[in-house]
Amino acid sequence: MSIDWITVGAQIVNFLVLIWLLKRFLYRPILDGIDAREKEISERMAEAAKIREAAETAEAEHKALIAKLRAGQAGALDEARAAAEAERDAILAETRKRLAREEAEREAQRAEEARRFTAELHRSGAEALLSLTRKALSDLADETLEERIVAHTVTRLREVADELRDAAGDSREAVVLTRAPLSPEATERLVNEAASVLPGFTLRFDTDPSLGPGLNLRLGGAQVGWTLDSYLDGLEAVLEDRAGRAATQVTQGSTDAA
Amino acid sequence: MELTPDDTIIFTLGGIAINATIVNTWVIMALLTGVSVLITRNLRPDVPPNRWRTTLEVIVGLIQSQIEEISQRRDGRLLYFTGTLFLFIVVSNLLTVVPGFDSPTASLSTTAALSLSVLVAVPMFGIGSRGVRGYLRTYLEPSVFMLPFNIIGEVSRGISLAIRLYGNIMSGAVIAAILLGVAPFFFPVVMDMLGLLTGVIQAYIFAILATVYISSATAPAPPDDAKNAKEQT
């Protein structure tokens, strides 16, 4: 066991060189790397804290926005519901109005059709009645309808002569109104009878195609004569009365059966 | 049987015999430097650390934490010195298991050189910390009569460091060699394993003692010493 001082010196130099080498290639790089990483970690943590703070702020804003939107959504729903209800009410009112209008139109149409039907019935009935009357008079009495109308008018003229004179006032002209011109014989008879019953009065014959068959003698505010329409009106009243009785009987039958 | 690699001359350079101790020291220096260069050559903050870099960071971090525990402060120069001591000794001791490799620490010249380095480093660190007068004043404490004993203690510290390390490493190698001749299959393996453990422990002890010596020399001076050092500077 001995010490080689040359080796000792060389080992001291080697050791000092090794210190320098490790300081250059080991300690400084490692320590600098650790410091850099710690610094970077610190910076990243600070940055992460900032990002987290920003994220929390954004989250709070987002939540507030969501709450606001939800509140607005509820209000919008209420508004939409109210608008929908108003729209529904308006549509219902419009529909009801349109239905009422259509119902009124249908009612008017029905009334018009009834009126037309009644008029047609009236006209048909008048024609049938007139035809039957003419035929009956021709077959049974060998007379025409116009002769019987004139005769009836003359009879009524004698009965109400005084009333006619009173109603005539200052007027001295009586108007005979028919649908078609009278025959000469009928005209002459009517003129002769008027002259005897109503002396001083003249007759003026006039026609109106819209009138029904018959004759009207007007003097002032009074009139006398015979028209088929008055008969038809009576016939219509009788028919309506019969129809009402039939409906009442049907209703009573249904109630008894129930 | 050669007890020290100093006796093995590898080659002669300018009339100076280069023995196995020096050559093997160069090998260890090259190994440590090469590994360090390889691992730290691509060391940038933006590159994630790999397992080798992490291993080096753990080793350096452990050395640094041990030094901080002893000296209660962070000192880069102390890390360079005692860290290199530890790494050199531990690598040398671990390489004793390599057949044909004579550990430099099995040479008393190497351990003496390391001890001398510590002996020189202690006053240098002390003077660097306290100043010349402040450091020399420590030899007169607690009284002037303690000066010779303090000097003897300082020298004996170096001698004990050198002899302890040399004795442990050399004896381990010698015992392993003897057992290899007596029982070549089992005991040498056990002794080598024990030698590895002993080598690491001795490296740790050497580095720790060096750190303690240097730290005691560089410890914060009492108020009077600090005042004297300030006046001197």
Describe the structure.
The complex is a heterodimer of chains A (258) and B (233). Chain A has five helices and four strands. Chain A is α+β, with helices and mostly antiparallel strands. In chain A, helix 1 crosses helix 5 and helix 2 packs parallel to helix 4. The longest helix of chain A has 137 residues. The radius of gyration of chain A is 61 Å and the shape is rod-shaped. With 233 residues, chain B is mainly alpha-helical. Chain B is 72% helix and 4% strand. Chain B has eight helices and two strands. In chain B, a hairpin with a 2-residue loop joins strand 1 and strand 2. The C terminus of chain B is likely disordered. Chains A and B meet through helix 1 of A and strand 2, helix 1, helix 2, helix 3 and helix 4 of B. Chain B: Keywords: ATP synthesis, Cell membrane, CF(0), Hydrogen ion transport, Ion transport, Membrane, Transmembrane, Transmembrane helix, Transport.
Largest sheet of chain B, in brief, is:
2 strands, antiparallel
Strand percentage of chain A lies at 5-15%
In which range does the helix fraction of chain A lie?
A: over 70%
CATH class of the domain at 122-247 in chain A: Alpha Beta
First CA to last CA of chain B: what distance?
55 Å
Estimated helix fraction of chain B:
over 70%
The CATH architecture of the domain at 122-247 in chain A can be named as 2-Layer Sandwich
- How much strand of chain B? under 5%
Keywords (chain B): ATP synthesis, Cell membrane, CF(0), Hydrogen ion transport, Ion transport, Membrane, Transmembrane, Transmembrane helix, Transport
GO molecular function (chain B): proton-transporting ATP synthase activity, rotational mechanism
Pfam families (chain B): ATP-synt_A
Protein name (chain B): ATP synthase subunit a
